Amino acid sequence: MTKTTRHRRALLLAVLGxxxxxxxxxxxxxxVELGKDWKGSTTFAVAxxxxxxxxxxxxxxxxxxxxxxxxxxxSDDTDAVSPHIVELADGRWILTVPRKSDKPDRRYQVNRKDxxxxxMTGDERLRRILPGKTLVAEVAGLPDxxxxxxxxxxxxxxxxxxxxxxxRELKIPGTIGLAASDPASDTVCLAADxxxxxxxxxxxxVTPVPSPNGVDINNLACSGGHPVIVGSPxxxxxxxxxxxxxxxxxxxTVSVNGGRADAVAATGSSIVIAASTGSxxxxxxxxxxxxxxLHRARVKGVASALGLTPTPAGWLVYTEKTxxxxxxxxxxxxxxxxxxxxxxx
Length: 345
Known about the structure:
By secondary structure, the chain is mainly β. The chain has 1 helix and 29 strands. The chain has one helix at 3-25; strands at 43-49, 52-59, 64-70, 84-87, 93-97, 106-111, 116-120, 127-131, 136-140, 145-146, 152-160, 165-173, 176-180, 187-192, 195-200, 205-209, 215-223, 226-233, 242-247, 252-257, 260-266, 270-276, 281-287, 293-299, 307-311, 314-318, 322-326, 333-337, 341-344. The strands form 7 sheets. Strands 8, 9, 10, 11 and 12 form a 5-stranded antiparallel beta sheet that branches. A hairpin with a 5-residue loop joins strand 10 (145-146) and strand 11 (152-160). It is globular, with a radius of gyration of 23 Å. 37% of the residues are buried. Mean pLDDT is 87; it is low at 1-25 and 142-148.
């Protein structure tokens, strides 16, 4: 082997070694390719990537989604219930992972600084975290207790997110199917069976809301503690998509006719609904007071919206495999892929 040949071989090995090092640096557990856009990711989702539960960072400005952290896998994980991720009022993101055999959920806090998931102490099972202004509500998805009248009830634990101590426990009659909150208020909105309740986390009061007439409830938002009930009319279905808004001191009801309301978000002054019209989805913005339609945008090819998130760059509409950024003012849309299958957003 000549000196020149040996030199070229050394260079080739050095290049291959560098490439291997770079590949290893961006690979996470199980071979999941991890990105580095922790700073640009303003919202997070959970997806199954290469068979592993992964925290995904969403950068709405750049229309990009990438895996940032693989959730530690345990033998007692369960696939029966999806993990849950939520942003608290103070900006912290909390991930809850369900376990088998009635064991408490495992919890993690997303650590942006160290690009990691920090384990938290958890003692509850199968609860959704609803962030309030100073408190959080942990809502059971199934009846786990009984009321004073010996009927089935769901419990709501009110906790202080600074140390996760339990302040009180509230009882909601029936099975909680829908739950929503607003980080600007310490009041949450709950739908159990066919009834809606408002729960004041500070004082521990639970107030029933009169059920809307002629509407089957299928979605719920909570604007400053004011319930926004979304449903379909029980009769008189339309061939075109239209909405009817009824506002009372107790609640605002939006009847969606000619489409299926898959997701809803209330911003205070307006209500945004993602409604399926078959193979496409219409994003509607309504004035929360008058019910007047302010904007409408069509998201083509999205038959069902699995999530709806507001960002300064536009609204994000989630499907199992994609995210679409929507500018409601101009109607412009931009679709980008998730790195795996969506579990929660």
